[in-house]
Write a structure and sequence with these properties.
- The complex is a heterotrimer of chains A (271), B (328) and C (281).
- By secondary structure, chain A is α/β, with parallel strands linked by helices.
- Chain A is built from 11 helices and 10 strands.
- Chain A is 40% helix and 21% strand.
- In chain A, strand 9 and strand 10 form a beta hairpin.
- With 328 residues, chain B is mostly helical.
- Chain B has a domain of 109 residues.
- Helix content of chain B is 65%, strand content 6%.
- Chain B contains 11 helices and 2 strands.
- In chain B, strands 1-2 form a two-stranded antiparallel ribbon.
- Chain C has 2 domains: 242 residues, 3-Layer(aba) Sandwich (Rossmann fold), CATH 3.40.50.300; 36 residues, no CATH class.
- Classes of the chains: A alpha/beta (271), B mainly alpha (328), C alpha/beta (281).
- Chains in contact: A-B, A-C, B-C.
Chain lengths: 271, 328, 281
């Protein structure tokens, strides 16, 4: 059974135009799904609907068999967590320690257990030496690591990353990207990464392309990247290597060179 | 790049760091009350001695505490001067020193000169407090030794009582500064918040939102350095657009200040919205029960400190009420 | 005239009286019409260096000359007017917007530098056109437009001041690839059409290698490299600079290995395609 089942989802901010327009989607447990789309396509709205920050106008969302509604929201929030884009605006605790503990405190986890979990997960994300540091002493990447530790400590099956790397410097981006890969491979979490960066999306198991509130296309990265014309038409900047491949394919002289195209395509799919 | 740390906490590991924050806060209040109950200079001196000894055992850097007194220097000196000039109302007061003082043409001129020199050189003097004392002393000294020219003569008498009274007031202020410094230097802001939350817990019975207040306090603590950083960035960005408050005319200043305030507000509101969402998703429900990672446990040393402090309060009450009579 | 750094050092005074030198012994000359990139790890001193260029900071040691104005300044000298020469666009510049309308906000800078209302409005409209903001946006509140439009408004606000030099601190930070491309193309246009000097601070090696003609690398507060991109990326101590390689270069390395073709340092699509065609595989 799919761990996330979305049926007929519809949502509008202002009754004028649909932010989410009839989305149907199933996500299998343990899979890494990337949701891509241009600005304003509804990707963030979808994320907020999935964690219950917004209430759908029509349609249903089932998370691990439970329907997402006011009654179940507490249970649902134990199963699904989210890391937002702005590292500062989700850091609640006065120190790293307090921030990782925050979710656990809300769940009424007994104090000795909280201490144990905080130490365990701080170590896991490499922030053990920073437990007493305050957020303004940390870099963006370090703050996002703390956010990840906090979510891991809650032992949520599903983790959403809403443009979690777009405000970071390249070092931080690489760092968090590697963590996300680890989460999927080692921890077998179900991941949804929302991004406008196709370079990052191609690492996922499955890509969903959203435009103007509906799913435009979905499939494995190879399939999606072979539709570069459609991607360009909705203003999605395709990865550099893919652009080069496309140009070679269209070029009079190079298009018949099978070896070249093969090598370029392999590079596109390389991790 | 940021070296600001919230609060004035100075790390250390002497006995006072291990005392429960609630005990420290209660002790602060109790000792302040006791200090204000004292009504003689010599008793105040004893209290000062006690507090000083206690301070020294905590091994908190003395200089840092002295710095806390700097802003009060003016007030303390002013108090001293008023007391000295005020003479006395009691007959038992003994004059210690009398001199004629002259507000003469010559003395006033010199005083004006000295004032100008004081302010002009203030920036370049390293030990400003001493410079200030010299300045005040000279003002009086000059009046004593320059009677030349048309003058208004008055007599300055320093009574022993006035000195005792000043000493009493000054020592009292210093004791308060020592006590509050001790609290802020040795208690981390998070511990203070936890302490406040715990002490106010009984108010929950009358539905007072204690936990919510504590959450607000700790969120405030968490964001002060971040907001300072933010403000700094905005100041720099607007400076790059020509905002230089020290160099602009008054009318311009108003728009310029607005250019600093509005972005700060906008960024803060966005932040508040994002934070609320984040807290929501992480399971925070206003008013619901929560556990806490920080524990406060009372130990023997905590109870002992409480007993000592309450003991001091009791003694001062008895002294004040007259049950104990001590010839001081 | 340009900007001249002579043996400049700057030390931050930390709260605990810790002095650490953010930049040390900087000697640098930036001439009119250059397109320079300043790169280096976070904490290498880029921000500090660049804030000296428009007199936000004044050197602790050495002197900085900005279009004839020498810093550190003398007591009576006003620092405000100096900032007109070098326009600094900060990271996430949209945070500096505050006026009632977009137009008024763009006019803010010019007015602070002494321009009268009509003159400032004229410059503002020109700047708005340059960044691609339509007339209908000009009358709207800067808080009721899209993020991309906000950023362009902020940039127009600096352009309207008509500085000789544009210093851009991570102009593409937080933007999607499309937005990043548009912003860089805008600056490149300004550089080529109006011959404005551009100083670009960026972590993005792809952008740096694509647009910058001169690259300066900072490490631990000192300049460790000053030259063009080929010299940089092929230099023998490239590893010491802790920098990423541009995607185009990495692809070239990969192609030269797998296809057994001679390696050539190329930095954009067009060049790579042309090269591959030349090779006659």
């Amino acid at each position: 059974m799919a761990i996330i089942q979305i049926k007929g989802l519809q949502f509008s901010y202002d009754r004028k135009h649909e932010a989410i327009n009839n989305i149907n989607l199933n996500i299998e447990k343990g899979k890494w799904v990337a949701v891509v789309g241009p600005n304003g396509s509804g990707k963030s709205t979808l994320a907020k609907l999935l964690v219950g920050l917004l209430e759908a106008d029509k349609g249903t969302i089932f998370i691990d068999g439970l329907e997402l509604n006011q009654k179940n929201i507490k249970e649902i929030r134990k199963k699904i967590g989210i890391v937002f884009q702005n590292p500062d605006n989700q850091f609640v605790g006065v120190t790293v320690r307090h921030d990782i503990a925050f979710g656990l405190e809300n769940q009424l986890v007994p104090q000795p257990e909280i201490v144990k979990l905080v130490n365990e997960y701080a170590e896991l994300v490499g922030m053990k030496d920073y437990l007493d540091k305050e957020p303004h002493q940390l870099s963006g990447g370090e703050k996002q690591r703390v956010a990840i530790a906090g979510a891991l400590a809650m032992n949520q099956e599903i983790m959403i990353f809403d443009e979690a790397t777009s405000m970071l410097d390249p070092e931080g981006k690489k760092d968090i990207t590697n963590f996300i890969i680890k989460l999927n491979e080692e921890f077998e979490k179900t991941l949804i990464t929302i991004t406008h960066d196709l370079e990052f999306a191609r690492k996922a198991d499955y890509i969903i392309v959203i435009n103007e509130g509906s799913i435009m296309m979905e499939g494995i990265p190879e399939e999606i990247f072979s539709q570069s014309e459609i991607l360009k038409s909705i203003d999605l900047d395709i990865p550099f290597s893919l652009r080069l491949y496309e140009r070679a394919k269209k070029d009079e002289k190079l298009k018949d060179n099978e070896k070249l195209l093969e090598v370029l395509w392999a590079y596109c799919l390389k991790m | 790049m940021n070296n600001i740390v919230i609060g004035q906490y100075i790390p250390g590991n002497s006995w006072i760091y291990k005392i429960d924050p609630r005990v420290k806060m209660v002790a602060l209040i109790v000792l302040m009350v006791a200090t204000f109950l004292l009504n003689s200079f010599y008793l105040m001196l004893i209290m000062f001695g006690l507090m000083l000894i206690m301070f020294l055992t905590t091994r908190v850097p003395f200089l840092k505490m002295l710095r806390g007194l700097k802003p009060l220097m003016f007030l303390l000196t002013f108090t001293f001067v008023i007391q000295i000039l005020g003479g006395t109302t009691s007959e038992s007061a003994k004059p210690l020193f009398t001199t004629d003082m002259f507000l003469s043409a010559s003395s006033i001129t010199i005083i004006v000169l000295i004032t100008i020199i004081y302010f002009a050189l203030k920036k370049y003097i390293p030990f400003r407090v001493i410079w200030f004392f010299i300045f005040v002393f000279l003002i009086f000294f000059v009046q004593a030794v320059l009677p030349y020219g048309p003058a208004y003569k008055y007599t300055l008498t320093i009574y022993d009582e006035a000195l005792l009274r000043t000493g009493f007031l000054v020592l009292r202020i210093i004791i308060i500064v020592i006590l509050s410094s001790l609290l802020t230097f040795t208690t981390m802001p998070t511990d203070i918040t936890n302490g406040i939350e715990s002490l106010l817990k009984p108010l929950k019975i009358i539905r007072f939102p204690v936990s919510e207040l504590a959450m607000m306090l700790s969120l405030t603590l968490r964001f002060i350095p971040t907001l300072l950083d933010e403000a700094n960035k905005i100041i720099k960005a607007q400076a790059s657009r020509g905002v230089e408050l020290s160099e602009s005319k008054f009318k311009e200043k108003i728009t310029q200040v607005v250019s600093l305030l509005i972005p700060l507000f906008v960024v803060s509101f966005k932040r508040a919205e994002d934070m609320a969402n984040a807290m929501d998703v992480r399971g925070y429900v206003v008013g619901a029960n929560r556990t806490k990672i920080d524990v406060m446990r009372m130990r023997f040393s905590d109870y002992f400190s409480l007993v000592v402090v309450l003991g001091i309060l009791t003694v001062t009450i008895l002294l004040r009420v007259g049950v104990i009579n001590v010839p001081l | 005239m340009g900007i001249l750094f002579k043996d400049v050092s700057y030390a931050y005074k930390g709260v605990k009286d810790d002095r650490f030198e953010a930049i040390n012994g900087i000697n640098l000359k930036i001439k009119d019409g250059e397109f320079v990139a300043i790169i280096g790890k976070t904490g290498s001193g880029k921000s500090t260096l660049v804030q000296h260029m428009n007199a936000l900071l004044q050197p602790s040691k050495g002197t900085v000359e900005i279009y004839g104005n020498i810093l550190p300044k003398k007591r009576k000298q006003k620092i405000g007017p100096i900032r007109k020469h070098v326009g600094l666009v900060f990271q996430f510049p949209e945070y500096q917007l505050f006026e009632y309308t977009v137009l008024k906000d763009i006019m803010f800078g010019p007015k602070n530098f002494g321009l009268k209302e009509e003159e400032a409005e004229k410059k503002a409209r020109e700047a708005a056109k340059l960044v691609g903001l339509g007339d209908e946006i000009l009358e709207r509140s800067p808080f009721r437009i899209s993020g991309g439009q906000m950023r362009r408004t902020a940039i127009a606000g600096i352009l309207a001041m008509e500085p000789h030099v544009l210093v851009l601190d991570e102009p593409t930070r937080g933007l999607d690839p499309q937005g990043a491309k548009e912003v860089m193309e805008l600056f490149n246009k300004i550089h080529e059409e109006y011959n404005k000097t551009i100083v670009l601070v960026s972590h993005d090696m792809n952008i740096v290698s694509k647009y910058a003609k001169r690259i300066i690398v900072l490490k631990d507060g000192k300049i460790v490299f000053d030259g063009n991109r080929e010299e940089l990326f092929l230099s023998s101590n490239f590893k010491d600079f802790s920098l990423e390689k541009p995607l185009a270069l990495e692809l070239m390395e990969y192609l030269s290995e797998t296809l057994n073709i001679p390696f050539k340092p190329l930095f954009n699509e067009e060049d790579i395609i042309s090269y591959l065609k030349e090779l006659d595989l």
